[in-house]
């Protein structure tokens, strides 16, 4: 019987390997599609994506898969197999609980709706998108019912992106965070001395920006023998396998912040994927454990390292040596403050680290209410604008810079947004824990990122999906989700910058 | 019954589409592997290649495939379906006639042998490779017997690369060609005035070379919206689909000829794939009809266009404007002659257009004799060297620059080499036919490549595999394979350059 089990485990691993092969091919195609593909090649390529995705999906919902789950889950021979089976079972159930016909209709609606969203956004006309969004919300409600939940229907969706996190927890945490953040933003608004990021907008040729960001990636410990850096329109990091994790960026020659902070952000994602324990290779565990945990890694490097005073004390001379003449005239302290300007604004992806989470909460509150049928899609634009005014004191002039700005909902994704804010809070909690073991600022100031990277790998990266997000948080920080650390970080940092 | 047939045709087309999806994914992986992949990523990627290749192979030899072939071949509704069925049936038979176990062993031997070849070549030690080559020859003999042939066992292998061409035909044509070429080479050797290619070896930065070759690709009609140009070690062109055909090149800053003639050569291959009739898309017919025909297209552009006096009359000023100072001092006539230097040498891929075919004939004679068991693998090095002396008057000092220089045999490929020389002859025949319709040199001199590209597309490219190579040759030139045109081209061109 034990022998039989080992044989079954070998076969199960074979099945996981097949799945991984499809996913690796798909990841390469996605990378190419967003970095290299010639314009005319994309049409046919999307057929290939459709075909390979279907093959991968079929494997995940196959009778073979079900057979191994049933055979092995009562006595897996190690933790790796046990967690792989859990992941496969969750996915199997998630996919099989939806009637095939509904899933097909939903998929078609998603892709149609994304196209409509682009048009609606260009036209600033929410009404174009409304009927599609209504259907997408209905499908998500139906799916949530198929999947089941304990207390709140929205929990069923949340699990896909942040397993273990509940609506109850988010309501509590977000409320505290919101109060503190709106208070802080108010203080910033009233500050008399404000940094001015306009001084940063000087021409900086791409080649110099590339040189600087490449150097920083190397110093972070990003392994260029297991990755590469390319240009794209909407930057991302993507893992083809743990030995091939690619970063992309975008150079704005009139504003280096896009490339510098963007590359470091994506580099944080990439470090996570590059440093997963090799033993997890070729299983569904060889990737980041959740969206939020992934974001914690990118934000740790972007905000807690690269936007810190310590970082620029060390790197400003290097930056100036690679930057054009006009940057040489900017005093260090003006520069540091300028890259940390806080300014409530309309667009989430342009938001600073203090206001960003407020953008997320607006989305969270609205999508939670939609899924629980407390509000209607048609009322979204007005509700959006009201919340923007309440939390950020700015009001969009058109839906284009309001409710239509993000792709997520039109792509059918509800429950995803909270991950971004969770990432901020996780990162702050990790930062605090790391500070107990070493003086982080001192390490950053001395340019010794190796110790930091090592700590992140030991505590977070290596585990992949072997541990769930809240499990990692608890082990590393000795407590649960707690927004205080983020608030304290922001208070401390910005009270200096804004003298408030 | 007609309805049933149409339904079966639709399903057959669906099957072809699936096959094409695997092949397109594999082509992208191959391109990436040779241009972009980080060093550590390759190991896992080769597993993915293995998996997807197996899936594609399984489709081509599946019972579903056999079913459609049998159902449809008696009355296909159009020529496209008819020829697709023929291609599928040939492939099905070719693969199914080999016992599965033997095919597996052969595939493993191939990959092992390629690795051994690299070591043997580095060490210049043929004995390392010999046992592998012996087995590979044995397999090829067995396979040829499974596949069958009419007159010569070697024909069975030739069909894979150049359908319709026989050993009998090659023996006849190559003998004529050899006599003429050795005679011409003899004359060149005795010429008193010889061009000196050393004058071309001046530092030429990569960026300038890239600018020039990109401009030439555009003028040739290569569509950059359906392709791109990247760097690699061993340049190639690859079609992912007809809307995405990529060219690669290599820049040698001390010798621009590598990139300039190499890119134009690969551009010729790419033009073929970019201009196949759209109606053939997603069938096995949407590619070049044979290795030889493909080579005719690359060589047409490389030798009959880019190495012509007419080409440089037009493009030398452009070249000089993009090249560094020292090139400005080289007189046009010295430059033109230097890029056409003829010099018998040891390495095939470095050979000039006059001696190249002699390199091919040596390989042809040896592999034909091996497959027909007239010589033994162990005698290859000595036989190689003897033939080199007889045909080219040079003798390798080591097997590294002799029998070990090419990868083909160690990769298990026998019957492939003749295609290169066929490409030269086809190209010369096409050149002659085109000359009847327009003054090619005049068109090249005026930079009007559009007319030339149009003629190649109309006569060759668009047909893909709908027509077989000798069928195209006959239709375009009104005769069969004839080496005279190549000989005449060389005589005429080089009697001027070498005043002989």
What value does the average pLDDT of chain A take?
A: 96
Structural class of chain A: mainly alpha
Q: Write down the domain tally of chain A.
A: 2
Considering residues with a beta carbon less than 8 A from a beta carbon on another chain, report the largest interface and each chain's count. A-B, 32 and 32 residues
* Quaternary structure of the protein: homodimer
Highest-level CATH class of the largest domain in chain A: Mainly Alpha
How do the strands of the widest beta sheet of chain A line up side by side?
1-3-2
Protein name (chains A, B): Metal-dependent carboxypeptidase
Binding site for Zn(2+) (chains A, B): 265, 269, 295
Active site (chains A, B): 266
GO molecular function (chains A, B): metallocarboxypeptidase activity; zinc ion binding
Could you characterize the architecture of this molecule?
- The structure is a homodimer of 500-residue chains.
- The first copy, chain A, has 500 residues and is mostly helical.
- The first copy, chain A, has two domains: 2-96; 126-500, Neurolysin, domain 3 (Orthogonal Bundle).
- Chain A contains 20 helices and three strands.
- In chain A, a hairpin with a 2-residue loop joins strand 2 and strand 3.
- In chain A, helix 14 (356-371) crosses helix 16 (418-437).
- The longest helix of chain A is centred in the first third of the chain and has 34 residues, at 2-35.
- Chain A is globular.
- Chain A binds chain B through residues 17-18, 21, 24-25, 28-29, 32, 36-41, 43-45, 47-48, 51-52, 223-228, 240-241, 243-244, 281, and chain B through 17-18, 21, 24-25, 28-29, 32, 36-41, 43-45, 47-48, 51-52, 223-228, 240-241, 243-244, 281.
């Amino acid at each position: 019987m034990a022998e039989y089990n080992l044989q079954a485990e070998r076969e199960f691993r074979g099945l996981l390997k097949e799945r991984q092969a499809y996913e690796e091919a798909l990841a390469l195609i996605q990378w190419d599609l967003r970095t290299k593909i010639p314009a005319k090649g994309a049409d046919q390529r999307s057929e290939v994506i459709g075909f390979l995705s279907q093959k991968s999906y079929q494997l995940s919902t196959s009778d073979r898969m079900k057979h191994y789950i049933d055979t092995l889950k009562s006595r897996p021979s190690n933790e790796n197999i046990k967690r792989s089976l859990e992941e496969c079972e969750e996915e199997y159930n998630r996919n099989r609980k939806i009637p095939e016909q509904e899933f097909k209709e939903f998929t078609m609606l998603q892709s149609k709706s994304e196209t409509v969203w682009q048009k609606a956004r260009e036209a600033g006309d929410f009404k174009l998108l409304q009927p599609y969004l209504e259907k997408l919300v209905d499908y998500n409600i139906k799916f949530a019912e198929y999947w089941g939940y304990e207390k709140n229907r929205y929990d069923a969706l949340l699990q896909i992106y942040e397993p273990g996190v509940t609506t109850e927890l988010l309501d509590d945490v977000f409320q505290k965070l919101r109060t503190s953040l709106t208070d802080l933003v108010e203080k910033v608004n009233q500050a008399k001395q404000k940094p001015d990021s306009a001084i940063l907008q000087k021409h900086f040729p791409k080649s110099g920006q590339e040189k600087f960001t490449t150097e920083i990636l190397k110093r972070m410990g990003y392994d260029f023998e297991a990755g590469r850096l390319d240009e794209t329109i909407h930057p991302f990091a993507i893992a083809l396998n743990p030995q091939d994790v690619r970063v992309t960026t975008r150079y704005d020659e009139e504003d280096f912040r896009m490339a510098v902070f963007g590359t470091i952000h994506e580099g944080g994602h990439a470090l996570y994927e590059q440093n997963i324990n090799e033993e997890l290779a070729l299983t569904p565990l060889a990737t980041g454990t959740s969206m939020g945990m992934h974001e914690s890694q990118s934000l740790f490097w972007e905000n807690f390292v690269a936007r810190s005073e310590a970082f620029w004390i060390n790197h400003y001379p290097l930056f100036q040596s690679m930057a054009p003449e006009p940057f040489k005239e900017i005093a260090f302290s003006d520069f540091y403050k300028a890259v940390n300007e806080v300014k409530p604004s309309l667009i989430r992806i342009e938001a600073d680290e203090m206001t960003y989470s407020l953008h997320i909460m607006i989305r969270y509150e609205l999508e939670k209410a939609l899924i629980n049928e407390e509000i209607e899609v048609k009322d979204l634009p007005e509700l959006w604008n009201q919340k923007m005014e309440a939390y950020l004191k700015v009001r969009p002039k058109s839906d284009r810079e309001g409710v239509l700005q993000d792709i997520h909902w039109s792509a059918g994704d509800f429950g995803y947004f909270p991950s971004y804010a969770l990432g901020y809070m996780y990162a702050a909690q990790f930062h605090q824990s790391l500070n107990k073991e070493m003086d982080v600022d001192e390490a950053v100031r001395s340019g010794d990122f190796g110790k930091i990277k090592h700590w992140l790998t030991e505590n977070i990266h290596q585990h992949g999906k072997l541990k769930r997000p809240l499990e990692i948080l608890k082990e590393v920080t000795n407590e649960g989700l707690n927004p205080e650390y983020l608030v304290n970080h922001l208070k401390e940092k910005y009270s200096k910058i804004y003298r408030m």
